From TrEMBL:
Protein family according to the UniProt entry: Belongs to the glycosyl hydrolase 43 family.
Active site: D38 (proton acceptor), E213 (proton donor)
Signal peptide, first to last residue: 1-20
Coiled-coil stretches: none
Site (Important for catalytic activity, responsible for pKa modulation of the active site Glu and correct orientation of both the proton donor and substrate): D160
GO BP terms: carbohydrate metabolic process
InterPro entries: ConA-like_dom_sf, GH43_C2, Glyco_hydro_43, Glyco_hydro_beta-prop_sf, Glycosyl_Hydrlase_43
Keywords noted in UniProt: Glycosidase, Hydrolase, Signal
Domain Beta-xylosidase C-terminal Concanavalin A-like, chain residue ranges per copy: 359-460
Protein name: Glycoside hydrolase family 43 protein
SUPFAM superfamilies documented for this protein: Arabinanase/levansucrase/invertase, Concanavalin A-like lectins/glucanases
Length: 593
């Protein structure tokens, strides 16, 4: 080490120490566990030195969650960009589970928060790209979700769009061109207030990996950098970069591409890609990306694509270097721990203990699938205070053929509400009072990934002859037989997935429990399986596990598992509500390596 570099190093270290940061920090990934893919993060000095991150929400509503932190460690949900149906009515009609909101980019410019994204109708292989709706939301106050505008639409045959402002103040949109036509990355000058665009230009084709997408532009030291994702969002996912002296190109690829990937490693954290970069107050660079905790086997990853973070070293005029993604990480000194964040949601590591008391609302992190019918969700109704009353929907969680298939099949969408699975190990339980009287009426709990992937434990009114099993631990002789045609409440486990799921289990509810209430529970005691249990409310020792099922059924695609409750008539004529109470989600462990 020369004297000069030694001095420079000391300067860097000494400045940091002087700022009170001390040495490097260690931190844990994921920073936003559970279904929080395609992260886009910014640091906003104008808002009290706060970091804000947006993530993709697909068909979930409210959509596009924003999490905030002052220390990069304690992240709190401040609200959702997409929080009112009028902002984007067509989310109600998307078919396919992979449709909905893809890859938002969050930026702050001219005292305004900008969120550019795409409402996708992912009807592959015959996708009609003319229906892919590229949109801009703008908002003035990240703590007041009502401040987000309705969608401003612009025309682009592609997705993963983002705003960028050049030094002359002109605004641009960069996006990934649809794969059937491209693939390449395009850019056009844009009026972000109106959605009017200049002409689209191809600015980079990536390095040859599948689907160059998720482009972000940064201007630094006289260079324009494009950061992109390539390889698809599976095991080959990677982050690549190119740069040019001119915003419009030509862009030259980084000879060290990919700059970040966990492909071909044995790391628990796989599919690392779709990154974004930001700088903290002391000038240190950080990268965020999505990753699945699947290991290279890529079989059990029910939490889907989560947000991870890493330190980035980006010397003047040079390419940035990303530290690899790991569960236990080390990087630049972080801002001092601080939890004074406003916002309507919990910190990301918190569990739930929700009593549905009068005059409360559903917690901000609770999620529906597409727009809910508000009257199907009533907190503390007069006939049963301190419960959440669910009015059943015509559609069940599978809906018709796994597609939502439009409002003609029932105006009330799906009666479902849940919260993300955010911990490898957890227990989720609720109490249920339910008095079904019509055939096929059902209420229960679910580990729900998409309408094509879910594992449900419900109470359903079925003929006694429909039973496939006796209830675990009961004595059928002592119970006495129900007449085969009698409609009785049965416990039903039912799953849907693209991989084989256990056959349905239908077992008569023990007579002594039929008057309810019951406790229903989903528990992950390890990283590969869930147990589904039921028992009389308040008598834990009598709980019985109906089935243990692999979580591979809900390890697929773009979203992550949501644990929740539902009520449905399964297309029948019923109307009996389910009353849910004592909602508990208890985090019990996080696998990080
Ligand atoms: C910044 O915002 C103000 C009002 O919100 C607007 O009048 C002005 O034109 C904007 N400036 C630019 C450069 O867009
Ligand atoms: C990208 O590929 C297209 C054809 O797919 C080609 O026309 C274009 O010149 C390429 N652009 C760059 C910047 O390499
Ligand atoms: C940058 O691109 C513009 C538009 O294509 C062109 O007019 C200009 O000459 C380019 N500048 C440089 C430095 O390449
Ligand atoms: C992973 O390994 C395969 C086979 O050697 C190779 O083709 C691929 O480029 C590698 N992927 C990355 C991102 O390094
Ligand atoms: C501190 O973290 C940065 C970013 O990861 C790294 O480049 C540097 O080597 C680390 N320093 C020490 C002393 O570990
Ligand atoms: C709920 O709000 C109503 C109207 O403001 C009020 O009359 C009632 O007492 C409140 N109930 C509870 C339990 O706080
Ligand atoms: C209910 O679920 C079943 C099985 O998943 C499905 O075949 C059926 O179409 C669904 N019915 C309704 C009305 O959603
Ligand atoms: C969804 O699919 C149904 C049935 O195929 C179709 O009638 C409907 O138009 C589709 N909706 C959209 C928005 O594509
Ligand atoms: C089941 O109940 C019947 C009737 O009460 C009794 O005769 C029988 O021994 C019980 N069987 C078991 C395995 O407990
Ligand atoms: C998780 O638990 C289930 C049920 O007890 C068991 O079958 C499975 O092998 C366990 N998985 C691991 C990785 O231990």
């Amino acid at each position: 080490m020369s004297l000069t570099t030694g001095l420079l190093l000391c300067l860097a270290v000494c400045v940091r120490t002087a700022l009170g940061h001390g040495g490097n920090s260690s931190f844990a990934n994921p920073i936003l566990p559970g279904f929080h893919p395609d992260p886009s993060c910014i640091f906003v000095p104008e808002w009290d030195d706060t970091f804000f991150c947006a993530s993709s929400s697909f068909n979930a509503f409210p959509g596009i969650p924003i999490h905030a932190s002052k220390d990069l460690q304690n992240w709190k949900l401040t609200g959702h960009v997409l929080n009112r149906r009028e902002q984007l009515p067509r989310l109600a009609e998307t078919n396919r589970s992979t449709s909905g909101i893809w890859a938002p980019t969050l930026r702050f410019n001219n005292n305004t928060f900008w969120l550019v994204t795409t409402l996708v109708d992912d009807d592959r292989p015959q996708a009609d790209f003319s229906r892919w709706d590229n949109i801009i939301f703008k908002g003035k106050d990240p703590y007041n979700q009502a401040s987000w505008s309705n969608a401003i639409h612009f025309s682009f045959t592609g997705y993963d769009t983002e705003p960028f402002w050049d030094v002359d103040g002109k605004a641009y949109i960069t996006g990934a061109h649809a794969w059937q036509v491209g693939p390449y990355i395009q850019q056009a000058e844009a009026n972000l207030d109106t959605g009017e665009l200049g002409e689209w230009q191809i600015i980079w084709n990536g390095t040859g990996g599948m689907a160059p997408e998720g482009p972000h532009i940064y201007h630094k030291d006289g260079w324009y950098y494009i950061l992109a994702a390539e390889g698809g969002t599976g095991l080959d996912h990677m982050v690549t970069m190119a740069r040019s002296k001119n915003l419009t190109g030509p862009y030259v690829s980084n000879p060290s591409n990919p700059v970040l990937t966990n492909a071909n490693t044995t790391n628990l954290f796989q599919t690392v890609g779709h990154a974004d970069l930001f700088q903290d107050k002391s000038g240190s660079w950080w990268g965020v990306a999505l990753s699945t905790r699947s290991g290279p086997n890529y079989i059990n990853y029910p939490m889907g694509r989560e947000t991870v973070m890493t330190a980035v070293s980006w010397p003047k005029g040079e390419w940035p270097t990303f530290s690899p993604i790991n569960g236990e990480s080390n990087g630049w000194a972080m801002p001092h721990a601080a939890k004074d964040i406003r916002g309507i949601g919990p910190f990301i590591t918190e569990g739930d203990d929700v009593a549905f008391t009068a005059n409360t609302t559903l917690p901000a992190h609770f999620t529906h699938w597409r727009y809910p019918h508000p009257s199907s969700f009533t907190i503390s109704p007069p006939e049963k205070p301190n419960t959440l009353r669910l009015t059943p929907s015509f559609l069940n969680l599978t809906a018709l053929n796994g597609n939502y298939a439009g409002p003609q099949h029932g105006p009330d969408g799906q009666t479902f509400v849940g919260r993300r699975q955010q911990d490898t190990l957890f227990t989720f339980s609720v109490d249920l009072s339910f008095a079904p009287i019509a055939l096929d009426e059902e209420a229960g709990v679910t580990a729900f990934l998409t309408q094509n992937h879910h594992l449900d434990l419900g109470i359903v009114l079925l003929p006694a002859s429909a039973s496939t099993a006796t209830f675990p631990g009961t004595n059928a002789t002592a119970e006495g037989a129900d007449a085969p045609a009698a409609l009785i409440p049965q416990v039903r486990f039912r799953g849907a997935s693209y991989v084989p799921v256990p056959a349905p289990v239908i077992a008569p509810l023990p007579r002594a429990w039929r008057a309810g209430p019951l406790t229903l529970e989903i528990k992950a005691a390890n990283g590969t399986h869930y147990s589904f249990s039921v028992g009389p409310a308040g008598r834990r020792s009598e709980m019985r596990t109906v089935l243990v099922a692999s979580n591979d059924a809900v390890s697929w695609g773009f979203t992550g598992t949501i644990l929740g409750v539902y009520a449905t008539t399964n297309g029948g004529k019923g109307s009996a509500p389910g009353y849910f109470s004592k909602w508990r989600y208890t985090p019990q462990g996080q696998f990080r390596n």
